[in-house]
Every structure is written in structure tokens, then in C-alpha cells.
Amino acid sequence: MTNKIAIIDCGTNTFHLLIMEIGVGKQTIVVKEKTVVKIGAGGINDKRIIPEAEERAIKALTDFKEQIDSQQVDKIYAFATSAFRNATNGTALRDKVKQSTGLDINIISGDQEAEYIFKGVSYGLALTNESCLVMDIGGGSVEFIIGEGQDILWKRSYEIGAQRLLDLFHDKDPIDDNSLKKLFAYLDEELPALFEALQQHKPTILIGSSGTFDTLSEIYSKKNHLNIDENPTEIPFSINAFESIYQELVSKNREERLMIPGMIEMRVDMIVVATALIKYIITRHQFDAMRVSTYALKEGVLSEILKKGSKA
Predict the structure, then answer these.
(1) What is the pLDDT at residue 126?
(2) Alpha-carbon distance 132 to 147, whole Å?
(3) Any idea what the CATH number is for the domain that residue 16 is in?
């Protein structure tokens, strides 16, 4: 007996849809897609979702619902994160989505988001007993999770996502040294608890999940003529490769960044501040290696569903 489930992740920058067919001991991807919605654009630091962004969200979710209906899905799990939970009109938009599409979106806490991300990463990667820091850079929030094997030792979600940092610090293109200094000073103020946790648990591996890390891996793979399998759980990257790519990104303007092999337009604006955040983290704490997981929140939800049984 098989059935189909759909998982929707309404992120601040990108909405994701995953439709899986689940049988005994077997899971098959039926649909896996993402669409740029940018619901944080124009209002995220004012804690509102502007009307144009609401329209983009409803259109994207209408499209997702049509695909879900065409696949005769048995159960839908829909989640929304930072932009929805922090906007004063986030719950109102959730209600509009329910009215327009029938989709019932669960606006989750940052703590829950961090837990799902770690479960997704640990589901996709063969994590050993070495301590690692999982880092997920979204448009609205950034999740940091320190884990050992399958266990979470510490986790926190910070509202310092790439759309927020872009609006606050990337007003010149290429970004200048003064803007980077201001960004790093801001992170000094925001992240002391993270560095206390890093000092306590001493993770040796940094694992980036999805988003910016996907694009960094794509740039790295193009530079090194590496082929990536279809639907991998992990994609190539290294801590040594980061520095040269970072320097390239912060020294180029938008048009020049778009010319970098592996760059995609949906990442070209936010990737500068996002990689600056990575640079800040690896400067402040020494890691022996960097890995990139393609699995994140939606796969963490999937792993929980599989544990409980797909009818749960």
C-alpha cells in the first residue's frame, strides 16, 4: 500500500514543494520544486508583508495546490517560517491563503524550525559522533544547531536572515569595507550566545543546509568541473574553497556576480551578505571541514512523518 504526501515550506525568500509517494520501505520523489516569492522584500525590517508580496505568495501556493490536487495527495503538511511569524499581518496572510487555496499553513517557531532543519540534515547525511554546527541561512532567519550524531546539543534561531542583512548593510554594490565592518559589528551584538555554545561544545565541522550553500557548492563544482548526481543528499564543497569564492562575491557588482558560472539570479542579491555571515562564523570559530546538505526543513518534516507513519 502506498500513499502520497505533500510538504510545503513557505520560506521568506523561497517557497518549496515536495510530493512523495510512500510505500513499505520505499519513498519516491514525485514533485520537488521551488519558486522565488520574496515575501520579505520591501517590509521585512518593518515587520510587515507588503501587498505585492502577499499576491506573490498566494499565486505560488495556488500553483502548488493545483499540482497537489493533480497528484491526488492524501495529506498536506504546510509550514511557514520567519517572515510569517514576525510580520504583524502574517496570520492575516495565512488566513487569506486558507480562504484562497484551502491550504492550512502552520506558522512554526524558530525553535521548531531549527529542530526540523537538524532532523533533515541528519536524515540526509551520515553524521558521525563528531560535533558539528548546522547553519541554515534563510531570508528572514538563520538557524544554528550544534549536534553530535543524531542528538541536538544546542539550537537557536536568529532573525538575521539574508533579506534583513541585505536591507540593512548592502546599500553599495560592490559592498564596501565599511558596510562589512558594520555588518560584523552587528553580528558581534547579536551572536554572543552562539559563541558561548561553540566554546562549550567545540564543533569541528560546519554543515550548511540548502539556500546560499547550494549556490556556493554549484560555483565550486563549476570551477572544478565536478558533476553532481540528481537529487543528492550532499553536494561538494570545502572550507578551503570558501575564501576565494567569498572574495570574488564581495568584490563584484550584481552584473558581474551573475556572470560567475553556477550563480543563479534568485541568489545574486542576498549571497553577498549571506557569505559575509559565513565568513564571520569561520573567522570566529575554527572548523576542520565544511559540508553542504541539500536536506533541510522539509526533509526534517518528512523524516518525522516516516517515523510516525505517513497517516500520522
Answers:
(1) 81
(2) 5
(3) 3.30.420.40
Q: What does the block give as the cell for 291?
A: 559540508
Neighbours of 287 (CB within 10 A): 17
Question: pLDDT by residue (tens digit) across 113-150?
Answer: 999 999 999 999 988 888 999 999 999 999 999 999 99
Residue 108 grid coordinates: 512554526
Q: Are residues 179 and 98 in the same domain?
A: no
The CATH number of whichever domain residue 277 belongs to comes to 3.30.420.150
CA of residue 204 relative to chain centroid, distance: 21
57-94 pLDDT tens trace: 999 999 999 999 999 999 999 999 999 999 999 999 99
List Cα–Cα distances, 251 to 48, 70, 177, in angstroms. 32, 46, 10
Residue 205 CB-half CA count within 13 A? 18
CA dihedral over 198, 150, 295, 221, signed as positive or negative: positive
Based on the domain organization, do 78 and 142 belong to the same domain?
A: no
Task: Kindly report the three-state secondary structure assignment for every residue of 58-78.
Answer: HHHHHHHHHHHHHCCCCEEEE
pTM of the complete model beyond 0.70? yes
- For residue 235, the surrounding DSSP H or E stretch is strand 234-235
Q: Let me know whether 147 and 280 are in one domain.
A: yes
C-alpha distance from residue 256 to each of 172, 175, 247, 249 (Å): 14, 13, 13, 9
C-alpha gyration radius of the chain: 19
On whether residue 200 sits in a domain, the answer given is: yes
C-alpha 67/C-alpha 103 separation (Å) is: 13
Q: Same domain for 222 and 103? A: no
Please, are residues 204 and 131 in contact by the beta-carbon 8 Å criterion? yes
Structural domain that includes position 196: 120-297
